[in-house]
Amino acid sequence: MQASRRAQSLALAPAVKPWAQARRAGRRLAGVGAIMASLLAYPAGADTLTGNLQSQIQLTAGCMIAGSAGAASGVNFGTLNFGTRPSTFTGTVQATASGGESVSGPTQLVCSPDVLGISIQVGPGNYAGLGGSIGAGTRAMRNGSTAAYIPYDVYRDSGHSQVYPLAAAISGIAVPANGAAFPLPIYGQINKTDATALPAGMYTDTLQVTVTY
């Protein structure tokens, strides 16, 4: 009789649909996945690696045109621009270097604080000794279209008392002790003593400059 009742209850029990079984199995797998993720996120007994990382940079003593990237060769020291004058002018005209390394304003040098002095050599230019009948000056600028010359000189000081030799350097030029920028100590002067008018046009020259520190 009992066996018969069991058979009847089994026969009356609702059938479990396959999708429900899959759903329950998915829930069990999701639970296992969550437990595994938790274990991976917080590994038991994790080790560490500690030590030191050193940083360093070495600076060398030197000088450069203020505001530039610090090139050591092919440096643009700027222009001695004497401006514009009538072709009949006489007297003196001064100029200071400006536009060094394409930086606007007067050309300036800056040296590291451990540089105590520099020497500067200014070359003779392309037309040294020419144009002596026009005025005083060991160097000269040339008008390319007419081959006319205007003599001039370059000096160590703004008072134009110490001229740069054609083939030697002037040494012992002091620099600021705190590494501050200072004007390039090259000063130009034209001294035209002859009243004869010169051909109109642009007169130019190129000077090789070497700064040693």
What is the CATH first-level class name of the largest domain? Mainly Beta
Shape: elongated
Q: Major sheet, described briefly?
A: 7 strands, antiparallel
Q: How many domains make up the 3D coordinates?
A: 2
Strand content: 25-35%
Question: Which architecture name of the largest domain does CATH use?
Answer: Sandwich
Number of helices: 2
Q: How much is the average pLDDT?
A: 86
Q: Kindly report the name of the CATH homologous superfamily of the largest domain.
A: Fimbrial-type adhesion domain
Instruction: Specify the helix fraction band.
Output: 10-25%
How do the helices and strands follow one another from N- to C-terminus? HHEEEEEEEEEEEEE
First and last CA, distance: 119 Å
Written overview of the protein:
The chain is α+β, with helices and mostly antiparallel strands and 213 residues long. It has 2 domains: 2-41; 63-212, Immunoglobulin-like (Sandwich), CATH 2.60.40.1090. The chain has helices spanning 2-12, 18-41, and strands at residues 63-65, 79-80, 91-98, 108-111, 117-122, 135-136, 139-143, 148-155, 169-174, 182-183, 187-192, 203-204, 209-212. The longest helix is centred in the first third of the chain and has 24 residues, at 18-41. It starts with a helix and ends with a strand.
